[in-house]
Write a structure and sequence with these properties.
This is CARDB domain-containing protein. The protein starts with 11 loop residues before the first helix and ends with a strand. It has 2 helices and 18 strands. By secondary structure, the protein is mostly beta strands. It has 2 domains: about 160 residues, Immunoglobulin-like; about 90 residues, Immunoglobulins (Immunoglobulin-like), CATH 2.60.40.
């Protein structure tokens, strides 16, 4: 499905990863950890679904994995980075990458008989930024596969990990502005990369001058450090054709970035 005609948005769909496995999580980076539903968990569950602490070497949190089936499960726990959708700000785990050089589960792989077991996360070394925002994946399958109606049950559960910096350094890199959409559905966007070490919400205002004047409030969004998200500068419906200047005032963690960008309708 083609959403827009835009040089900025062309790459966004490549970053949008659908959560197809049972128990996968699609959420916003700045939301609280989602509560897994029984239909997703089946006979395996994790608590808590959010591990949050100030980043430091050593133990940074513990989760409990519970097996309520009658079978022994083979369980693997991995910490993985987020992929953030540039259009929506939603995040999913990049299941092809691992953050094991920085944070590792202990134990990482084990057999879980009916019952529960605690798993600790250990920060092996600090990141250059002093923070780490990621997710953890708990994958469980029967040690001795027993198909039910031709299906072998398995569970793929996700949680969030927020290791906040001791010293905050909120920072942004402001990119290009563009017009997304067509006709009456056109809107103004601004590419912004989080180059700091916090998950503070990014927001602000935009003032548009030209043949038609308009002001808008930028909806707040949490941008994972290192990721790019398109800030929404409001709808352009009803605006006359011509050359425009957009004055953006973008804020994060008490810092303000003022930039001007031109566009044409």
């Amino acid at each position: 499905m083609k959403l827009v005609r835009s040089r900025l948005v062309a790459g966004a769909l490549g970053l949008a990863v659908a959560g197809t496995a049972t128990g996968s999580v699609i959420a916003r980076a700045d939301e609280s950890a989602p509560v897994a539903k029984a239909s997703q968990q089946g006979g395996v569950s994790i608590t808590p679904a959010l591990v949050e602490k100030t980043a430091k070497r050593g133990n940074i949190g513990t989760i409990t994995i519970k097996n309520t089936t009658k079978d022994t499960m083979r369980v693997t726990v991995n910490v993985r980075p987020w992929i953030q959708n540039r259009n929506t700000g939603s995040v999913v785990l990049n299941t092809k990458a691992s953050l094991a050089p920085y944070v590792r589960a202990s134990p990482q792989t084990f057999d879980l008989a009916p019952g529960e077991r605690r798993v600790s996360f250990n920060m092996r070394r600090m990141t250059a930024s002093g923070s780490l925002y990621a997710g953890f994946q708990v994958f469980a399958k029967q040690k001795k596969a027993k198909a039910r109606n031709g299906i072998v049950p398995q569970w793929d559960l996700r949680g969030k990990m927020r290791l906040n910096p001791t010293r905050k350094n909120p920072n942004l890199r402001i990119g290009a502005s563009d017009v997304a959409g067509r006709g009456n559905n056109r809107s103004l966007i601004l590419a912004v990369r989080n180059t700091g070490n916090t998950l503070d919400p990014v927001g602000g205002t935009v003032s548009i001058t030209g043949p038609t004047a308009r002001n808008a409030t930028i909806p707040q969004v949490g941008i994972v450090p290192g990721q790019v998200v398109y800030l929404k500068g409001g709808a352009l419906r009803g605006m006359k054709a011509g050359n425009y200047t957009a004055t953006w005032a973008v804020t994060i963690g008490g810092k303000r970035f003022n930039v001007k960008r031109t566009f044409k309708l």
